[in-house]
Amino acid sequence: MPQNRDGSFLSDSMKELLGPGVGQISFERMQELNRLMSYYRCAMMEVVTKFNVLNEQFSLQFDRNPITGIKSRLKTLPSILEKLERRGYPFSLESIEENLNDVAGVRVICSFREDVRMLSEALMQQDDIILIERKDYIRNPKPNGYRSLHMIVSVPIFLAHEKKYMRVEIQLRTLAMDFWATLEHQLRYKKDFDFASDMEKELFTCAHLSAELDERMDGLRQLMQQQNEQAASAPGEKPLRWTDQSHNLR
Ligand code: GTP
Ligand code: MG
User: Fold this and answer.
1) Of all protein residues, whose CA lies closest to atom 3 belonging to ligand 1?
2) Looking at the whole model, is its pTM more than 0.90?
């Protein structure tokens, strides 16, 4: 670990965040920081649970899982400090809460585009969730082709003596969108590699292909749904839901 000239291991921004004076990092501040990060962790768990519950509920109703995976992450302290610095915000705990929306992040990978819409709507119908910001990069992709639905929400966590609202960034995307975004991120941030404009064009084409794939898969899903509905409405041919479920349990 690199050591600073004054003999400490902390960067200047870290010192400013944790307390005044070199080598006088206040123990209380450190505890406050740990507490804040733990609140973000709780809010993140809260959101993950909400999506797991929705997945469970929809899989019972439609006999398939709308969610194929959920990832969550807490921003590391160095990357929190880097973002505060880049945006010109003060280094303080209050500033983190006030200015950063993505300390806690939850990414929900869905089977179909329709699932993204349905899940985001179902989440927003929950009366304890407050929507702070919504960016629909599926309807309006970024110029490089990036697609996902981003939401910043405020979610309550219940502490021993109070209820506290914490912000969480949620990204909802399909498998195809995730495939593209993951590889694009890998390529773009590869060290010592010059990202040529030819590659940008190729990636944009790939984004277009992934969007087409989603569209065609959604077409198949609609067909399947229509057939299921027809079968369900045919007299005497109601699907045996419990049998379906017990089959899944085997
Ligand atoms: P930052 O959080 O500082 O990036 O700014 P912002 O909140 O205005 O950005 P935005 O909501 O558009 O995107 C935030 C997150 O979405 C990023 O941290 C990435 O996880 C993801 N993201 C956005 N654009 C891209 C992209 O072009 N490619 C990939 N792979 N991911 C992206
Ligand atoms: Mg962000």
Assistant:
1) 83
2) no
